[in-house]
Design brief:
By secondary structure, this protein is an alpha/beta fold. Helices cover 46% and strands 19% of the residues. This is YgjP-like metallopeptidase domain-containing protein.
Length: 168
C-alpha cells in the first residue's frame, strides 16, 4: 500500500484493538476480522505515519550521518566534498562540529543528537564547506549560505548556547 509492504493479520479473537509493528521493513497490522478493507487501509496509513515520525526522532547513527553528509554534499556542493567519515563526538563541548580536512573526517557534537534534523544538517553543511574552504572568509560564507535554513539554525544554536551558559 502506498509503496510500502503491509501484512494484515485478521483475528477472530480481536474485537476492538488494532496493533502494528514493523518487521524487516514490512508493516504488520493485527486487526479484528470484522474490519472492512477501507478501515484496514486507513489504520495502515495512520500507523505508517506514526512509525515514520518515531523513526525521524531516533538519533542518526554514524553511518546515517555519513550518508546524510554525502547527500547534502551532492545537493548543495555538486558532490565536490566527499567526507570519508562522519561521527558523533562526546568530546566537543564548545563546538557544534569540527573537520579534519586532511582525512576528510567530520565530527558532530553529541549534543546535536536530540536536536531537529535541519539543525544537524546545517552543521553538516558548515563542516562540508570546510572541506572546500578551510577558513571562515567570504567564500566560506557563500558556500554555507547555500543551505536555506542556515540563519535559522544559527539562531537556534545561539539560543541553546545562551541557555547552557546561563543555566543554574
Amino acid at each position: 500500500m502506498d509503496g510500502h509492504e503491509v501484512l494484515v493479520v485478521r483475528s477472530a479473537r480481536r474485537t476492538r484493538t488494532i496493533t502494528a509493528d514493523q518487521v524487516a521493513g514490512t508493516l504488520r497490522l493485527r486487526v479484528p476480522v470484522r474490519l472492512s478493507q477501507r478501515e484496514v487501509e486507513d489504520h495502515a496509513r495512520a500507523f505508517q505515519k506514526k512509525l515514520a515520525r518515531r523513526a525521524a526522532r531516533r538519533p542518526r547513527s554514524d553511518e546515517e550521518l555519513l550518508e546524510r553528509a554525502r547527500a547534502l554534499s551532492t545537493r548543495y556542493f555538486d558532490g565536490v566534498p566527499q567526507p570519508e567519515a562522519v561521527s558523533w563526538s562526546t568530546q566537543q563541548h564548545q563546538r557544534w562540529g569540527s573537520t579534519t580536512s586532511t582525512t576528510g573526517t567530520i565530527r558532530l557534537s553529541s549534543r546535536l543528537r536530540e536536536m531537529p534534523a535541519w539543525v544537524q544538517d546545517s552543521v553538516l553543511v558548515h563542516e562540508l564547506a570546510h572541506l572546500i574552504e578551510p577558513g571562515h572568509g567570504p567564500r566560506f560564507k557563500e558556500l554555507v549560505a547555500k543551505y536555506p535554513r542556515t540563519g535559522e539554525a544559527d539562531a537556534f544554536l545561539a539560543g541553546v548556547s545562551w541557555a547552557d551558559r546561563n543555566a543554574g
